[in-house]
Amino acid sequence: MNNIRLATKKDIKKIFELLNHDRNLSVDGKTGEYEKEDVEEFVGVKINKTFVYEEHNKILGVLITQFWKTYIYLHLIIVDKNYQGKGIGEKLISYMENIAKKRRIKAIESITGKKNKKMKSLLKKMNYKRGKAFIPFRKEL
User: Fold this and answer.
1) Which of 121, 108, 56 is nearest to 83 (CA)?
2) What distance, in Å, lies between the first and last C-alpha atoms of the chain?
3) Which domains does the chain have, with CATH numbers?
4) Which of 58, 70, 89, 125 is the most buried (most CB within 10 A)?
């Protein structure tokens, strides 16, 4: 049974809740940085592909990506804190990789925080190589 599908507008509220409860998704370690409008764009804009993993009609994981012609940018992945460590992140990334292979996309890129040990561990486990060229910047307005 496939538990992964593209997100729809009905999923926005749950995705919004997951995003705003994880300090690892924040540049400065705070929670609550995402706005509802951000999530609406993740789900509604054509270039963005947001995938959800669900069991028993409950969203347990979310993968937000941008599909370009030659590569995919893995924007973020989040798994409900009560279900972390159960392979949901791996399943979401594998699902995205299979779509990429079918589309003959050659690369997937992602940026994660220095202290986000879980994400770094997941990417290493799935044979992603650490880059050396990007430094994130942020300015509050």
Assistant:
1) 56
2) 45
3) 4-125 (3.40.630.30)
4) 89
Spatial contact of 97 and 109, defined as CB atoms under 8 Å apart: no
**Contacts of 127 by beta carbon, 8 Å cutoff, 6+ apart:** none
For the beta sheet containing 58-67, the strands, ordered from the edge strand earlier in sequence to the opposite edge, are: 4-6, 48-55, 58-67, 71-79, 107-110
Cα gap 91→138, rounded to integer Å = 31
Q: Which residue has the tokens 């880059």?
A: 131
Token pair for residue 92? 């979401």
State the alpha helices, DSSP H only, in the chain: 12-19, 36-44, 88-102, 117-125
Residue identified by tokens 């054509």 is 46
Q: Which two tokens stand for residue 124?
A: 């290493």
**Alpha-carbon span 63 to 65, nearest angstrom:** 7
pTM of the model: 0.82
Each residue of 15-27: pLDDT tens digit? 888 887 765 554 4
Q: Beta strand pairing status for 48-55 and 4-6?
A: antiparallel
Report the C-alpha gap between 112 and 89 in whole angstroms. 14
Q: What pLDDT is attached to residue 44?
A: 80
